[in-house]
Amino acid sequence: MAKGKEIITPKQKIILQADIQPPFNAMVTEVESDYFWINLPKEGNQVLVLQKDQRVKVGISLPQGFYQAETMVDILGTQNDKFYGLHMPEILLDSQERRFLRAHHSTNVLFWSGSLQAQSALVNFSAGGMMVYLVPELEEILHSKQPIKAQMQIDDFPFELDVKLAWRKHYDNIPFAGFQFINLSSRLQGSLTLLSVRLNK
Predict the structure, then answer these.
(1) How far apart are CA 40 and CA 99, in angstroms?
(2) Which Gene3D superfamilies does UniProt cross-reference here (predicted)?
(3) Which of 70, 109, 116, 127 could lock 192 by a disulfide, CB 3.0 to 4.6 Å apart?
(4) Same structural domain for residues 152 and 66?
(5) Residue 31: exposure state from Cβ atoms within 10 A (0-12, 13-18, ≥19)
């Protein structure tokens, strides 16, 4: 746990997550008493469009851990370096959810367990896990409670991974599932880290 005013400081890089959109990187440009300004969150040709009073998650990666909190858009600015004014959260909680940089990327993912198979689509991934659409065939695999493997290809690099379910959630009535990579070699983890960094540029 950390106080918002202690770690949300000018020139601090943050990660924003709104609804089911992919995470966006932004920079804290100025800090006021009750809110802080960020520049326009942009990834490639995409920008993060937010409305006043919209709730968002903010995350900060520090050497001692990843901290996150839910906050709200207080002010819509007009300058590029003061684009959104976000409410200053009192505290941010230490989270295991995103210790690794997460990249938004679409590709097919094949799951199998014993004789059961399911094909889904990747939403995002990191060196620690991935988010996919929870299709009925994947639900059947989860109900089998057997070890699960996943296979996917990212930027022409094929991966075959042992996975386990981390969470299930619905966004706008669409089911999603988060899987943690397990028994991951340092070589595979390093490759996934490099790919997530490359795809976030």
Answers:
(1) 23
(2) predicted glycosyltransferase like domains (2.40.10.220)
(3) 127
(4) no
(5) middle
Q: What is the spatial distance between Cα 176 and Cα 172, in angstroms, rounded to a whole number? A: 10
By three-state DSSP, how is residue 104 classified?
Answer: strand
pLDDT at 22 over 80: no
At residue 64 the predicted structure's pLDDT band, cuts being 50, 70 and 90, is low
Please, are residues 152 and 159 in contact by the beta-carbon 8 Å criterion? Answer: yes
Domain count, the chain: 2
- Asked if 182 contacts 147 with a C-beta cutoff of 8 angstroms, the reply is no
Q: Which residue(s) pair with 143 in the sheet?
A: none
Is residue 77 located within the same domain as residue 134? no
Last residue of a domain, one of 30, 65, 95: 95
1: three-class secondary structure by DSSP: coil
Q: Which residues pair with 28 in a beta bridge?
A: 38
Task: State residue 97's pLDDT score.
Answer: 45
